[in-house]
Amino acid sequence: MGSSMRKKKEKKKDFQKPKLRVGKTKAKADNFTDTSFKAKSIVLNQQSLTTAAPSSSTQLTHYLSLASSSKSDTQRKDAMSYLVSRLSNAPSDAPTLPASILLPKLLPLILDGSTAVRAQLLKLFKILPPEDVSDRAESVILYTRAGMTHLATEIRDDALNVLEWVLDITGDAIVKCPGGWVKTLNSFMSMMGWTRDKSSTSKWSSESKVTISNKSNKSFARQLTLLAKFLKAGLDEEVVLVKRSLNDIKFDPATYALPTVHDPFGYLNLFGPPRDEDGTAYMDSDSRRRVFQKRFRDIVDKGAEDARRAGGETGRAGSTLAKVVKEGMANFSSAT
């Protein structure tokens, strides 16, 4: 009986409200955190307050960093717009950024997901001096190939715009750089679905899913047009100088001057790792024709014929492609 009463009193004690004495504060909980402190100052890392405005070179470097590394599409677009405006309207004696600094930072933006950023990027590329772009053709075509094989249709189309710009200002520098000929043709074949299938009896594979939807619009026709332009740059014969006698030869200082291009003997790959057939630099048109005849001629001929039969804009682009291949390979013999 005593035990039962004791248990009842203990349970009743849990529901009793404690009486608070006047002037005495309530006991603090075990997990109480004191938040009564006041901060007298807030210090930010790398804070710089100055009355002088930043220099032009500092502003260019800052906006270049924003364009290449910002996570916001709006910031990248605004930074690219600033760079385009400053570099296009800058006077000749104003400080600027050379292509050797701009291209390594901005080339990855060829794969940017924002259409506005890629549009501003192409505007900036067109401002750069052609000779500076030619010296870095290998880096430019590397990111261009990545854009050509991207899953997004818009990025593939903009990558073709970059390829057209490079072909217009550098001529055959793109097809002569290491990997510029075979690897770019492989990217074209992958983008357009023109790949061999060894397991098929017809030796032709079905078209890739990313290309089927492009057959009925301008995208596929533009791919055919740019392929024809690229092949024309690689298959056309170089100008051969006429042999002259020793009496007709005059001293030309330019022949013995220092090279004006970056890494003039890079195609020899004297100090680099060994290259395979795809990564080789094909410096003359005969070597490029030989590889094209061996690996791509049948694929391109059949693809151009299929495009020509489709009619319309695609048919005209297919006819142009077939004409370029025929003229480029006219004087080529497999025996040579």
TrEMBL record:
It comes from Cadophora malorum. Component of the RIX1 complex. Residues 132-231 form the Pre-rRNA-processing protein Ipi1 N-terminal domain. Residues 1-27 are annotated as: Disordered. InterPro entries: ARM-type_fold (IPR016024), Ipi1_N (IPR024679). Belongs to the IPI1/TEX10 family. It comes from the Eukaryota. Signal peptide: none annotated. The gene is IPI1. Residues 1-11 have a biased composition (Basic residues). Component of the RIX1 complex required for processing of ITS2 sequences from 35S pre-rRNA. This is Pre-rRNA-processing protein. Keywords: Nucleus, Ribosome biogenesis, rRNA processing. GO terms for biological process: rRNA processing. It is found in: Nucleus. One of its GO terms (cellular component) is nucleus.
